[in-house]
Design goal:
Elements (H helix, E strand, L loop, with lengths): L1 E7 L8 H14 L27 E9 L10 H6 L6 E8 L9 E9 L8 H9 L5 E5 L7 E5 L4 E9 L2 E9 L7 H11 L8 E10 L8
Parallel strand pairs: 2-9
Antiparallel strand pairs: 1-2, 1-3, 4-8, 4-9, 5-6, 7-8
Length: about 220
């Protein structure tokens, strides 16, 4: 098994997960790279992206798994793929998949809260106090629950959080649990909107996934 490390930025962040999979499948074909196909009556190129990125998020640490066939040099794969991929998607490396996906324990997100009229006075202290709470329970969608929703306490799933004020924005540097269970930073922002005064609610939010880590806080790739 092999892996591609790639970034997803600019307008490409609005490509859905399924469309992204199809984009890579076509790109392998256009790049003239032979990869493993699924079995059955309608085989198609096998590609897998762990921890699918929500639509609208940018990232510089995405990973795609596949199996390269033939004697192609892995060092040549990024350039060949980038020539076949749309703007905003860039492959940075191709390597053997040695570490299992289950070792991904934490995800680092940079969340930027933007305010049209400038960040409210005292907002940094209010958000920092929010992260110091013992518990903040919110609702999230769940396919397993009969009601379609389930409750989750976001605080235990936040390993680290720092808050920084920059002109008309507030930047949250979050280290969140990745899986079993994982925490979507949109739930964190939703909790901030619900729990803090209305003036703290941002006019616009940008989400960026920056890095993946294992249980020892070492970079995972």
């Amino acid at each position: 098994m092999h892996r591609l490390a790639f970034s997803k930025t600019e307008t490409a962040r609005y490509i859905s997960h399924l469309d992204l999979m199809r984009t890579f499948q076509r790109a392998f074909q256009r790049a003239g790279l032979r990869i493993k196909h699924t079995e059955g009556f309608h085989p198609h190129p096998f590609v897998s992206i762990p921890l699918p990125l929500p639509v609208g998020f940018s990232s510089t640490c995405e990973v795609l798994e596949f199996a390269l066939l033939g004697d192609c040099n892995m060092a040549d794969v990024p350039a060949r793929m980038n020539a076949a991929l749309p703007a905003g998607i860039k492959v940075t490396a191709c390597y053997d998949a040695e570490r299992p996906v289950k070792q991904i324990s934490y995800v680092n997100y940079i969340v930027t809260l933007e305010y049209n009229s400038g960040s409210p006075f005292g907002i940094v202290g209010q958000i920092e106090s929010f992260f110091q709470r013992e518990s903040v329970v919110v609702q999230k969608r769940s396919k397993k629950a009969k009601s379609g929703f389930t409750e989750v306490d976001v605080i235990p799933l936040i390993e680290r959080a720092t808050v920084e004020e920059r002109r008309d924005t507030i930047v949250l540097d979050l280290m969140l649990h990745a899986q079993n269970p994982g925490l979507n930073p949109q739930l964190v922002v939703g909790a901030i909107r619900a729990e803090l005064p209305a003036a703290v609610a941002p006019d616009y939010v940008c989400y960026h996934r920056r890095a993946l880590f294992d249980g020892q806080m070492e970079l995972w790739r």
